[in-house]
C-alpha cells in the first residue's frame, strides 16, 4: 500500500508539473493569437488577457491525453534511472502491480475531467464566445433551446433583437412560427413581428406572412399594425455562426446534456453529434487509463537496454495515433456510419487491450 501511494504521489506531481508548463505555453501562444485577432479593434490588453484565460481551459481539456502520456513517460523513466524498478522487481512485485497507482490516478483524473473540468470548459467557452462577439461587432448573438422552442438573439448598432421559433429545419436556416422583438439601443422594445416562417439569407431574414406591430409610446399597436406577404429584416447572423453556437456540444455541461438533447430533438434538430459527444465524455476516464498503459508498455524498462529515446517516441506516436482513431471514430458516429456506442467506447477499450497485450508480452515473452 505504501508503495502504491508513493507511485501515485510521484505520478501526480509529474502530471502537475507537465500541466503547468503546457498551460503557460498555451496562455502565451493564445495571448499572441488574441492580440493578432483584435489588433484592428479597440480591445485593451486586459480584455485580451481575459479572453486568453477564458479560452485556455478548452485547450487544456483537449490535451489531457498528451499530459497523461508525458506524465507516465516521466514517471517510469525516472524510476528506471534511479533503479527503483529493478528493486521493485527484485522484491517480487510484478510490473502490472506497479501500474495500479498510475492507472488509479488516471481514472480519478478522468472522472474529475468529465464531471468538473468539462462543465467548467462549457461555461468559459460560452463566455469567451459572447465577449469575442461583443468586441468584434458590438453586440452578441446567441442561440438556446428550451421547452418553449428555439431562441436566438442578434445584436448590432441598431440594438438587440430577440427571436423565438417553435421549431426549425435541420440546419436552423428556416424557422417556423416565429416572433421577432426588436429593442432600441437604450433597451426599450420598438417593434414586434410575427410570421409563419423566417428564412435566413445573406444580410437578413426573409419573413413570410408577417405582421408588424409598432411598440412606440403613444401609438396603438393593433391600429397601426401592418401585414406583409414577404418582409426582410436585416441581420448580422450567418448560418455558420448559428451552427457554431448550436453544434458545439462542448459548450453544454455534461450534466445538462441529456435534457439538452431532448430539447434539441423536440425543436427539430438532429442530436446525433451530441449523443456521440456525451458517450465519449463518459468513456474519457477509460481512454486516459489506456494512455497510461500505452506509455508504460514502452517505458517500463531498465535504461541499460538502451533505446530510451526511441521508446519514448514510439509511446508518444502510438498515443497520438490512438487519439486520431478516437476522433475519427467520433466523426463516423456523428455521420451515422457506425453506431454511437461503438464510436464512443471502442477506441478507449481497444487502447487498453492493446496496451495490456504489449505489457503481457514484455513481461512473459
Structural notes for this entry:
- 60% of the residues lie in helices and 18% in strands.
- The protein is an alpha+beta fold and 365 residues long.
- It has a seven-stranded antiparallel β-sheet with strand order 1-2-3-4-5-6-7.
- A hairpin with a 2-residue loop joins β2 (149-156) and β3 (159-168).
- The longest helix is centred in the N-terminal third of the chain and has 38 residues, at 100-137.
Give the low-pLDDT segments: none
The major β-sheet equals: 7 strands, antiparallel
Return the average pLDDT rounded to an integer.
83
Please report the number of helical segments. 11
Q: What structural class should be given to the helix and strand makeup?
A: alpha+beta
State Rg.
Answer: 26 Å
- Written as H for each helix and E for each strand, in order along the chain, the element string is HHHHHHEEEEEEEHHHHH
Q: Strand arrangement, largest sheet? A: 1-2-3-4-5-6-7
The percentage helix is 55-70%
Shape: elongated
How much strand content do the residues show? Answer: 15-25%
Gap between N and C termini, in Å?
Answer: 28 Å
Tally of structural domains: 2
User: How many β-strand stretches?
Assistant: 7
What keyword list fits this structure?
alpha+beta, 2 domains, 7-stranded antiparallel β-sheet, 11 helices, 18% strand
Compact overview of the structure:
The protein is of the alpha+beta class and 365 residues long.
List the helices and strands and how they pair.
Elements: H1 2-37, H2 45-62, H3 64-81, H4 84-90, H5 95-98, H6 100-137, E1 142-146, E2 149-156, E3 159-168, E4 174-183, E5 189-201, E6 204-214, E7 226-234, H7 239-246, H8 257-266, H9 272-299, H10 308-334, H11 340-364
Antiparallel strand pairs: 1-2, 2-3, 3-4, 4-5, 5-6, 6-7
Helix pairs in contact: 1-2, 1-3, 1-6, 2-6, 3-9, 3-10, 6-9, 9-10, 9-11, 10-11
Amino acid at each position: 500500500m505504501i508503495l502504491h501511494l508513493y507511485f501515485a504521489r510521484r505520478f501526480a506531481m509529474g502530471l502537475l508539473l507537465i500541466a503547468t508548463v503546457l498551460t503557460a505555453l498555451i496562455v502565451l501562444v493564445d495571448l499572441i493569437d488574441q492580440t493578432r485577432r483584435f489588433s484592428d479593434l479597440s480591445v485593451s490588453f486586459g480584455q485580451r488577457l481575459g479572453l486568453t484565460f477564458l479560452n485556455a481551459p478548452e485547450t487544456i481539456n483537449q490535451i489531457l491525453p498528451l499530459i497523461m502520456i508525458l506524465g507516465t513517460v516521466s514517471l517510469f523513466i525516472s524510476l528506471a534511472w534511479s533503479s527503483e524498478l529493478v528493486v521493485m522487481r527484485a522484491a517480487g512485485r510484478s510490473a502490472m502491480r506497479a501500474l495500479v497507482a498510475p492507472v488509479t490516478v488516471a481514472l480519478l483524473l478522468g472522472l474529475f475531467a468529465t464531471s468538473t473540468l468539462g462543465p467548467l470548459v462549457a461555461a468559459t467557452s460560452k463566455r469567451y464566445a459572447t465577449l469575442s462577439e461583443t468586441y468584434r461587432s458590438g453586440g452578441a448573438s446567441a442561440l438556446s433551446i428550451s421547452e418553449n422552442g428555439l431562441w436566438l438573439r442578434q445584436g448590432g448598432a441598431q440594438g438587440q433583437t430577440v427571436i423565438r421559433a417553435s421549431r426549425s429545419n435541420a440546419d436552423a436556416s428556416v424557422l417556423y412560427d416565429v416572433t421577432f422583438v426588436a429593442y432600441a439601443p437604450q433597451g426599450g422594445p420598438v417593434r414586434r413581428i410575427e410570421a409563419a416562417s423566417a428564412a435566413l439569407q445573406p444580410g437578413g431574414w426573409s419573413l413570410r406572412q408577417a405582421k408588424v406591430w409598432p411598440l412606440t409610446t403613444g401609438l396603438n399597436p393593433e391600429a397601426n399594425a401592418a401585414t406583409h406577404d414577404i418582409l426582410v429584416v436585416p441581420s448580422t447572423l450567418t448560418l455558420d455562426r448559428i451552427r457554431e453556437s448550436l453544434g458545439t456540444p462542448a459548450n453544454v455541461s455534461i450534466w445538462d446534456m441529456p435534457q439538452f438533447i431532448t430539447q434539441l430533438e423536440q425543436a427539430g434538430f438532429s442530436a446525433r453529434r451530441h449523443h456521440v459527444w456525451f458517450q465519449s465524455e463518459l468513456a474519457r476516464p477509460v481512454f486516459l487509463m489506456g494512455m497510461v498503459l500505452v506509455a508504460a508498455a514502452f517505458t517500463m524498462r531498465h535504461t541499460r537496454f538502451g533505446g530510451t529515446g526511441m521508446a519514448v517516441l514510439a509511446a508518444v506516436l502510438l498515443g497520438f495515433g490512438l487519439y486520431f482513431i478516437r476522433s475519427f471514430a467520433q466523426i463516423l458516429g456523428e455521420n451515422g456510419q457506425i453506431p454511437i456506442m461503438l464510436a464512443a467506447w471502442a477506441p478507449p477499450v481497444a487502447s487498453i487491450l492493446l496496451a495490456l497485450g504489449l505489457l503481457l508480452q514484455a513481461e512473459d515473452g
